[in-house]
């Protein structure tokens, strides 16, 4: 049962009902780590989208460091409710889209976001939804940052090499590293890709 291939609906239902937003809010070091890369490539005036923002910890951290043009996509209503309670200023001042990425990505403007980023989200995109990567490429104006497990074998994970995925859509990888052990993201890679 553990290794049985799950449907797209089963994956969506899992994340709708198991977002654990209070737990996600605690991992500030992950947001600090992300911001170091954001600062290298994007100015605070840049348009930034996080796919799978959960409770909004990463967006809040960026918001507190003068990034104001922020958008998040989140499938879990529980996570969005917790975002509004935990980060009320963020909730009032940024756009949060309550939707699956599949239902929202085609509605976003092309070449709009200076940066699109994910942290442990693309790894849960079902193979039936591989088409979203082409859409991510279309909406990204300059940079894409992925912080993902690329090799984990588990029913909720769909392993991919994101350098290879996005090179097909005109991106060039400019940076790659293994996430530090103290983030609790053992075996995760960060990739920075630039649209050509």
UniProtKB/TrEMBL annotation:
Domain Methyltransferase: 48-141
Pfam families: Methyltransf_25 (PF13649)
Record keywords: Transferase
InterPro entries given in the database record: Methyltransf_25 (IPR041698), SAM-dependent_MTases_sf (IPR029063)
SUPFAM superfamilies linked: S-adenosyl-L-methionine-dependent methyltransferases (SSF53335)
Domain of life: Bacteria
Transmembrane segments: none
Molecular function terms from GO: transferase activity
Name of the protein this chain belongs to: Methyltransferase domain-containing protein
Annotated source species: Compostibacillus humi
Native organism taxonomy: Bacteria, Bacillati, Bacillota, Bacilli, Bacillales
């Amino acid at each position: 049962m553990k290794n049985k291939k799950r449907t797209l609906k089963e994956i969506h239902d899992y994340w709708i009902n198991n977002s654990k937003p209070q737990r996600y809010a605690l991992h500030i070091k992950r947001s600090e780590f992300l911001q170091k890369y954001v600062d290298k490539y994007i100015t605070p005036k840049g348009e930034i989208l996080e796919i799978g923002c959960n409770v909004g910890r990463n967006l809040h951290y960026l918001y507190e460091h003068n990034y104001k043009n922020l958008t998040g996509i989140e499938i879990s209503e529980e996570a969005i409710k917790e975002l509004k309670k935990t980060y009320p200023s963020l909730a009032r001042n940024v756009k949060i889209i309550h939707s699956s990425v599949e239902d929202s990505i085609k509605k976003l403007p092309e070449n709009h976001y200076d940066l699109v980023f994910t942290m442990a989200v693309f790894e849960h995109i079902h193979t039936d939804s591989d088409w979203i990567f082409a859409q991510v490429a279309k909406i990204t104006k300059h940079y894409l940052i992925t912080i993902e497990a690329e090799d984990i074998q588990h029913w909720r994970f769909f392993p991919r090499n994101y350098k290879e995925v996005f090179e097909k859509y005109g991106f060039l990888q400019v940076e790659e590293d293994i996430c530090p052990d103290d983030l609790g993201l053992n075996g995760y890679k960060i990739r920075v890709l630039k649209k050509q």
